[in-house]
Amino acid sequence: MDLADMEEVEGNRWQSLAYRRVATALADLSEDIEEVWREGRLREIEGVGEAIEKKIDEYLRTGRMRKYEEMRKKYPEDFRTLRAIQGLGPRKIHALYTGAGIRDLETLKKAIEEHRVALVPGFGQKSEEKLAKALQYYMSTSAGRLLLAQAHALATEILEAMRSSGLFERIEVAGSVRRRKETVGDLDFLCISADVPGATRFFSSLPQVSGVVNSGERKGTWMLRAGITCDLRFIDRGSFGAALQYFTGSKSHNIALRNLAISKGLKLNEYGLFRGDEPIAGSDEEGIYRALGLEYIVPELREGTGEIEAAQSHSLPMLVEGNGILGDLHLHSDWSDGRDSLEAMVSAAASMGYRYVCVTDHSASLRVARGLDAARFRDRRVQLDMLSEKYGITVLDGVEAEIMPDGSMDPEVRGYRDFDFVVASMHQWVSDDASENTARLIRAIDGGWPSTIGHPTGRLIGTREQFRMEWGEVFRACRDKGVALEINGTPHRSDLPWDLVLQARKAGVRFSLGSDAHSTSEMRNMTYAVWIARRGWLTPSHVLNTSMVGRRQ
Ligand code: DGT
Ligand code: CA
Ligand code: CA
Ligand code: ZN
Predict the structure, then answer these.
(1) Which residue numbers delimit the Polymerase/histidinol phosphatase N-terminal domain (predicted)?
(2) pLDDT tens, 542-551?
(3) Is 356 exposed, middle or buried (0-12, 13-18, 19+ CB in 10 A)?
(4) CB of 184 shorter than 6 A to ligand 1
(5) Considering the domain 146-234, what is its CATH architecture?
(6) Which is the closest atom of ligand 1 to the Cα of 179?
């Protein structure tokens, strides 16, 4: 994928498209690439021709790719960071690179300060100001942070490698990954090991690690290839629970917990819970919460939003769980802008064990996504019924419907009234004015069409801010009309954000969970939607997907 970016910045559009197609095919590959390679079947992968086959072969044989290294020398910086900024696509990056030598965040920042962006062909004063704003938003939200999906996968890989090394009695990840926060600043590992030097050496040699930042007796910090750092701490057995508690955070949860300890005449730190000098808990986390008179608080709830009070009064919520999700209520097929066929999506849903799946292709007014008109929806329904029969799973006739500027539904949706489930979304015509947006969304809710509001805030982490909206009014309208709010599991959306979920829950709103998958592999994004729901204190009864959603008669 990196190679594709660099070719595109270089101006080689076709080359870049070819790489990108292969990168996507590789990511979706159900077999082990090395096996495919050994059996000489690389050419069977979509998009792989002779030239690319040679490159993959070179890489798997030697662990290197000459072409990649040449390009890397030319473009030492990670253009991907520039692409994360709103309004910057490869073509504009190409223009900025050739026109002003901009190659990374530093050089972009400098060029903006010196007003050199406005001089680049295709840019002007206005676009320079816009870019300055977008850069500022990026720096304040996601610079130097990874999306949870990526950070969690990385942490899991590292944990597996460490566990199978035999050098660790125990190793866990703490910090924001354990709390399932939507972005992660660094990874925090805690371990018990009898061989600290050996364990440290092993950690340094992991393929995910690019270098040592510092390494001491009981703690080290490493730079990871993914672009963030990670800490590894060696802990004594008797303190492991206390350390896990402390380094899981959050900071505000820890402060509240420490104050509770003090109020009971105890002392809590990363080594244990003490009465005077005598330890009364520390080897396991549960013991610490118990000794403080609390129910166990799962990491997702440790954000200092009332969880300690709830644990004291035994009123913590019984959180929704992944295996309680009976179906996916938002996904796309290649009838609109999805990559996989209806059949592939339905069959994937069946093999994930779902009892139902709702296919929500876009409606006609979203032209960029090849939205469907009423006639196409009628044709699609015939296919859905056939697939439902074939795979023994309820297939709901759904739509992701455009909310029009005046808050009405897409006329094509009104023309075809048979939908079982309507995800109503704002993709276009969004205003800078909160009261306008609020009035529009509430008109949509009051109109009686939506089952749920799709990715309600419209944010894209790092690249697009939330819509300006009076959320309290929207929540009230949803509750009154029985319209749900979506929790969209696409990692860079993570929308509703967990803190708004918590507010909406208090206002009496219910929620639908959706992967918003555009391919079968993205259906796994449901996991992230469940994590957000848990951070928002949701129980099964708050979530539509925990019960059957049937065909509209
Ligand atoms: P991140 O890395 O920015 O995504 O977020 P965290 O929560 O992983 O933060 P990090 O890595 O700085 O620290 C891990 C945990 O360690 C944090 O959640 C709470 C605890 N911790 C770190 N520094 C302090 C501190 O100064 N005071 C207290 N009470 N706890 C701290
Ligand atoms: Ca951290
Ligand atoms: Ca840390
Ligand atoms: Zn959408």
Answers:
(1) 327-405
(2) 999 999 887 7
(3) buried
(4) yes
(5) 2-Layer Sandwich (3.30)
(6) 7
CA of 455 to the centre of ligand 4 (A): 7
For residue 316, report the distance from its CA to the centre of ligand 3, in Å.
Answer: 28
How many C-beta neighbours within 10 Å does residue 505 have? Answer: 20
Quick check: helix, strand or coil at residue 395? strand
User: Interhelix angle for 105-113 vs 125-141, to 10°?
Assistant: 140
Residue with tokens 């004063």: 125
pTM, 2 dp: 0.83
How far is the centre of ligand 3, averaged over its atoms, from the C-alpha of 312 (Å)? 29
Q: In whole angstroms, give the CA distance from residue 425 to residue 454.
A: 5
Give the ligand at the shortest distance from the Cα of 330.
4
Using DSSP's 3-state secondary structure scheme, residue 346 falls into helix
Rounded Cα gap, residues 553 and 550, in angstroms: 9
Q: Which residues surround ligand 2, an ion (CB under 5 A)?
A: 175-176, 186, 188
Range(s) within the chain of domains with CATH label 3.30.460.10: 146-234
List of E strands, 498-553: 511-514
Half-sphere exposure of 206 toward its Cβ, with a 13 Å CA cutoff?
A: 26
Tell me the CATH class for 322-546: alpha beta
Query: Which residue has its alpha carbon closest to ligand 1 atom 26?
Result: 251
Q: Are 204 and 232 in contact (CB under 8 A)?
A: no
For ligand 1, whether the C-beta of 251 sits within 6 Å is yes
CA dist., res. 482 & res. 478, Å (int): 6
336 ligand 1 Cβ < 6 A: no
Indicate whether residue 255 lines ligand 1 (CB < 6 A): yes
Model confidence over 444-502: pLDDT tens digits?
A: 999 999 999 999 999 999 888 999 999 999 999 999 999 999 999 999 999 999 999 99
**Ligand 1 atom at shortest distance from the alpha carbon of 188:** 11
> Is the CB of residue 282 less than 8 Å from the CB of residue 275?
no
Span between the terminal Cα atoms of the chain, in Å: 46
Task: Quote the CATH superfamily of domain 239-312.
Answer: DNA polymerase, thumb domain (3.30.210.10)
Instruction: Report the distance separating Cα 132 and Cα 417, nearest Å.
Output: 45
Half-sphere exposure of residue 219: CA atoms within 13 angstroms, side-chain side:
5
